[in-house]
Design a protein that fits this description.
- The protein has seven helices and 15 strands.
- The protein is α/β, with parallel strands linked by helices and 236 residues long.
- It folds into two domains: 121 residues, Rossmann fold; 84 residues, LytTr DNA-binding domain (OB fold (Dihydrolipoamide Acetyltransferase, E2P)).
- Strands 2-1-3-4-5 form a five-stranded parallel β-sheet, with helices on both faces.
- A hairpin with a 2-residue loop joins strand 11 and strand 12.
- The longest helix is centred in the middle third of the chain and has 17 residues.
- It is elongated and about 65 Å long.
Length: 236
Protein backbone atom coordinates (compact mmCIF):
# COMPACT_ATOMS: atom_id res chain seq x y z
CA UNK A 1 0.00 0.00 0.00
CA UNK A 2 1.46 3.35 -1.07
CA UNK A 3 1.57 6.52 0.99
CA UNK A 4 -0.57 9.44 -0.15
CA UNK A 5 1.51 11.74 -2.37
CA UNK A 6 1.11 15.43 -1.48
CA UNK A 7 2.19 18.47 -3.48
CA UNK A 8 2.54 21.85 -1.75
CA UNK A 9 2.31 24.93 -3.99
CA UNK A 10 3.44 27.96 -1.97
CA UNK A 11 5.58 30.91 -3.11
CA UNK A 12 7.08 31.60 0.34
CA UNK A 13 9.80 28.98 0.63
CA UNK A 14 10.00 29.01 4.46
CA UNK A 15 6.24 28.42 4.76
CA UNK A 16 6.39 25.71 2.08
CA UNK A 17 9.22 23.92 3.90
CA UNK A 18 7.36 24.08 7.22
CA UNK A 19 4.22 22.61 5.67
CA UNK A 20 6.24 19.84 4.04
CA UNK A 21 7.96 18.95 7.30
CA UNK A 22 4.60 18.80 9.08
CA UNK A 23 3.19 16.56 6.35
CA UNK A 24 6.16 14.22 6.68
CA UNK A 25 5.56 13.86 10.43
CA UNK A 26 1.95 12.94 9.59
CA UNK A 27 3.19 10.07 7.41
CA UNK A 28 2.52 11.45 3.93
CA UNK A 29 4.78 11.10 0.91
CA UNK A 30 5.71 14.76 0.35
CA UNK A 31 6.92 15.99 -3.03
CA UNK A 32 9.36 18.85 -3.57
CA UNK A 33 7.27 22.03 -3.12
CA UNK A 34 6.41 24.20 -6.14
CA UNK A 35 6.85 27.97 -5.84
CA UNK A 36 4.70 29.01 -8.80
CA UNK A 37 2.20 27.87 -11.42
CA UNK A 38 4.78 26.60 -13.94
CA UNK A 39 6.72 24.56 -11.39
CA UNK A 40 3.47 23.06 -10.12
CA UNK A 41 2.39 21.89 -13.60
CA UNK A 42 5.81 20.36 -14.21
CA UNK A 43 5.71 18.42 -10.92
CA UNK A 44 2.12 17.30 -11.51
CA UNK A 45 3.08 15.95 -14.94
CA UNK A 46 6.13 14.10 -13.62
CA UNK A 47 5.13 12.96 -10.13
CA UNK A 48 1.33 12.51 -10.33
CA UNK A 49 0.35 13.71 -6.82
CA UNK A 50 -2.75 12.35 -5.09
CA UNK A 51 -3.64 15.71 -3.53
CA UNK A 52 -2.32 19.30 -3.64
CA UNK A 53 -2.26 22.16 -1.15
CA UNK A 54 -2.47 25.39 -3.16
CA UNK A 55 -1.73 28.89 -1.96
CA UNK A 56 -4.31 31.10 -3.66
CA UNK A 57 -1.99 34.11 -4.01
CA UNK A 58 1.07 32.89 -5.93
CA UNK A 59 3.75 35.15 -7.33
CA UNK A 60 3.44 35.72 -11.08
CA UNK A 61 0.43 36.16 -13.35
CA UNK A 62 -1.11 32.76 -12.59
CA UNK A 63 -2.76 32.24 -9.21
CA UNK A 64 -3.65 29.14 -7.21
CA UNK A 65 -7.17 29.47 -8.60
CA UNK A 66 -5.80 29.28 -12.16
CA UNK A 67 -3.91 26.14 -11.17
CA UNK A 68 -7.03 24.65 -9.59
CA UNK A 69 -8.91 25.13 -12.87
CA UNK A 70 -6.24 23.18 -14.75
CA UNK A 71 -6.29 20.41 -12.12
CA UNK A 72 -10.08 20.11 -12.48
CA UNK A 73 -9.99 20.10 -16.28
CA UNK A 74 -6.95 17.93 -16.94
CA UNK A 75 -5.65 16.01 -13.94
CA UNK A 76 -8.68 15.32 -11.71
CA UNK A 77 -7.33 15.02 -8.20
CA UNK A 78 -8.38 16.81 -4.98
CA UNK A 79 -6.85 20.08 -3.81
CA UNK A 80 -7.00 22.28 -0.73
CA UNK A 81 -6.75 26.06 -0.85
CA UNK A 82 -4.35 27.80 1.48
CA UNK A 83 -4.49 31.55 2.14
CA UNK A 84 -3.86 34.26 4.71
CA UNK A 85 -7.00 36.06 3.49
CA UNK A 86 -10.48 34.83 4.27
CA UNK A 87 -12.27 37.93 2.91
CA UNK A 88 -15.54 37.71 1.01
CA UNK A 89 -14.06 38.19 -2.49
CA UNK A 90 -11.29 35.61 -1.98
CA UNK A 91 -13.69 32.99 -0.65
CA UNK A 92 -16.16 33.60 -3.49
CA UNK A 93 -13.43 33.30 -6.12
CA UNK A 94 -12.19 30.08 -4.50
CA UNK A 95 -15.69 28.59 -4.42
CA UNK A 96 -15.92 28.78 -8.22
CA UNK A 97 -13.34 26.01 -8.66
CA UNK A 98 -14.82 23.76 -5.94
CA UNK A 99 -11.90 23.12 -3.55
CA UNK A 100 -12.21 20.08 -1.32
CA UNK A 101 -11.12 22.04 1.76
CA UNK A 102 -9.91 25.53 2.71
CA UNK A 103 -7.16 26.36 5.20
CA UNK A 104 -6.53 29.84 6.60
CA UNK A 105 -3.00 30.69 7.81
CA UNK A 106 -1.90 30.12 10.48
CA UNK A 107 -3.26 26.60 10.96
CA UNK A 108 -2.44 23.70 13.25
CA UNK A 109 -1.03 20.27 12.48
CA UNK A 110 -4.41 18.73 13.32
CA UNK A 111 -6.23 21.13 11.00
CA UNK A 112 -3.86 20.22 8.18
CA UNK A 113 -4.35 16.47 8.75
CA UNK A 114 -8.14 16.81 9.01
CA UNK A 115 -8.37 18.90 5.84
CA UNK A 116 -6.39 16.35 3.81
CA UNK A 117 -8.40 13.38 5.06
CA UNK A 118 -11.74 15.13 4.46
CA UNK A 119 -10.64 16.27 1.00
CA UNK A 120 -9.68 12.73 0.00
CA UNK A 121 -12.90 11.33 1.45
CA UNK A 122 -15.04 13.85 -0.46
CA UNK A 123 -13.13 13.18 -3.65
CA UNK A 124 -13.73 9.45 -3.26
CA UNK A 125 -17.47 10.02 -2.91
CA UNK A 126 -17.68 11.56 -6.35
CA UNK A 127 -19.08 9.20 -8.99
CA UNK A 128 -16.64 9.20 -11.93
CA UNK A 129 -17.41 7.94 -15.40
CA UNK A 130 -15.59 4.58 -15.42
CA UNK A 131 -14.79 4.89 -19.15
CA UNK A 132 -12.92 8.13 -18.47
CA UNK A 133 -11.28 7.00 -15.25
CA UNK A 134 -7.51 7.22 -15.59
CA UNK A 135 -6.42 6.79 -11.99
CA UNK A 136 -4.53 3.62 -11.10
CA UNK A 137 -5.49 3.51 -7.42
CA UNK A 138 -8.18 4.05 -4.81
CA UNK A 139 -8.11 5.22 -1.21
CA UNK A 140 -9.20 2.82 1.53
CA UNK A 141 -10.14 3.95 5.04
CA UNK A 142 -7.91 2.15 7.55
CA UNK A 143 -8.40 3.16 11.19
CA UNK A 144 -8.17 6.96 11.28
CA UNK A 145 -6.76 7.73 7.85
CA UNK A 146 -7.07 6.96 4.15
CA UNK A 147 -4.41 4.84 2.46
CA UNK A 148 -3.77 4.46 -1.23
CA UNK A 149 -3.89 1.01 -2.80
CA UNK A 150 -2.88 0.45 -6.41
CA UNK A 151 -5.24 -1.43 -8.71
CA UNK A 152 -2.37 -3.77 -9.58
CA UNK A 153 -2.21 -4.80 -5.91
CA UNK A 154 -5.81 -6.10 -5.90
CA UNK A 155 -6.64 -9.72 -6.77
CA UNK A 156 -10.36 -9.57 -6.01
CA UNK A 157 -12.93 -7.89 -3.79
CA UNK A 158 -15.55 -9.78 -1.81
CA UNK A 159 -18.74 -8.44 -0.25
CA UNK A 160 -19.23 -9.21 3.45
CA UNK A 161 -22.55 -7.76 4.61
CA UNK A 162 -21.92 -4.01 5.16
CA UNK A 163 -18.17 -4.39 4.56
CA UNK A 164 -15.95 -5.44 1.69
CA UNK A 165 -12.80 -7.55 1.82
CA UNK A 166 -10.00 -6.51 -0.55
CA UNK A 167 -7.65 -9.44 -1.20
CA UNK A 168 -4.20 -8.33 -2.37
CA UNK A 169 -1.36 -9.87 -4.30
CA UNK A 170 0.85 -9.90 -1.19
CA UNK A 171 -1.81 -11.88 0.75
CA UNK A 172 -3.07 -8.88 2.74
CA UNK A 173 -6.81 -8.65 3.34
CA UNK A 174 -8.12 -5.10 3.82
CA UNK A 175 -11.54 -4.35 5.26
CA UNK A 176 -13.55 -1.27 4.27
CA UNK A 177 -17.06 -0.23 5.25
CA UNK A 178 -18.66 0.34 1.86
CA UNK A 179 -20.73 -1.57 -0.69
CA UNK A 180 -19.52 -3.55 -3.68
CA UNK A 181 -21.47 -1.22 -5.98
CA UNK A 182 -19.74 1.85 -4.56
CA UNK A 183 -16.25 0.38 -4.87
CA UNK A 184 -16.97 -0.87 -8.41
CA UNK A 185 -17.63 2.70 -9.59
CA UNK A 186 -14.13 3.69 -8.46
CA UNK A 187 -12.27 0.89 -10.25
CA UNK A 188 -10.97 0.86 -13.81
CA UNK A 189 -12.11 -1.45 -16.59
CA UNK A 190 -9.69 -4.25 -15.65
CA UNK A 191 -12.16 -5.23 -12.93
CA UNK A 192 -15.08 -7.56 -13.63
CA UNK A 193 -18.22 -8.20 -11.59
CA UNK A 194 -18.59 -12.00 -11.69
CA UNK A 195 -21.48 -12.36 -9.25
CA UNK A 196 -23.35 -10.29 -6.66
CA UNK A 197 -20.66 -10.80 -4.05
CA UNK A 198 -17.41 -10.65 -6.04
CA UNK A 199 -15.37 -8.34 -8.26
CA UNK A 200 -12.14 -9.73 -9.73
CA UNK A 201 -9.11 -8.16 -11.37
CA UNK A 202 -9.16 -9.69 -14.85
CA UNK A 203 -5.39 -9.40 -15.14
CA UNK A 204 -4.96 -12.13 -12.52
CA UNK A 205 -7.44 -14.71 -13.82
CA UNK A 206 -5.42 -17.86 -14.58
CA UNK A 207 -8.19 -20.35 -15.35
CA UNK A 208 -11.90 -20.32 -16.18
CA UNK A 209 -14.40 -23.13 -16.64
CA UNK A 210 -18.18 -23.46 -16.91
CA UNK A 211 -19.02 -22.25 -13.43
CA UNK A 212 -15.93 -20.70 -11.83
CA UNK A 213 -12.62 -18.99 -12.35
CA UNK A 214 -9.27 -19.12 -10.59
CA UNK A 215 -7.14 -16.28 -9.23
CA UNK A 216 -3.96 -17.33 -7.41
CA UNK A 217 -5.13 -20.12 -5.06
CA UNK A 218 -8.76 -18.96 -5.00
CA UNK A 219 -11.59 -20.65 -6.91
CA UNK A 220 -14.50 -18.22 -7.25
CA UNK A 221 -17.93 -19.20 -8.65
CA UNK A 222 -19.38 -17.20 -11.57
CA UNK A 223 -23.03 -16.12 -11.35
CA UNK A 224 -25.21 -17.26 -14.24
CA UNK A 225 -26.39 -13.80 -15.22
CA UNK A 226 -22.80 -12.48 -15.16
CA UNK A 227 -21.22 -15.25 -17.24
CA UNK A 228 -21.61 -13.72 -20.73
CA UNK A 229 -20.14 -10.44 -19.57
CA UNK A 230 -17.22 -12.24 -17.89
CA UNK A 231 -16.42 -14.11 -21.11
CA UNK A 232 -16.67 -10.90 -23.12
CA UNK A 233 -14.42 -8.96 -20.76
CA UNK A 234 -11.82 -11.74 -20.80
CA UNK A 235 -12.08 -11.86 -24.62
CA UNK A 236 -13.15 -15.53 -24.69
Amino acid sequence: MSKIKVLVVEDEIIIADNICKTLQTLGYNVLEPALNFSEAIEIIEQKKPDIAILDIHLSGKKTGIDLAKIINETYQFPFIFLTANADFNTVNAAKEVRPYAYLVKPFSKNELFTSIEIAISNFQKKEPNRKELTKNSIFIKQKNSFNKILFDEILFIKSDHIYIEIHCTDQRKLIDRTSLNEIYEKLNTDFIRIQRGYIVNGNYVTKIDQNSLQIADYIIPIGKKYKQNVLKKLKL
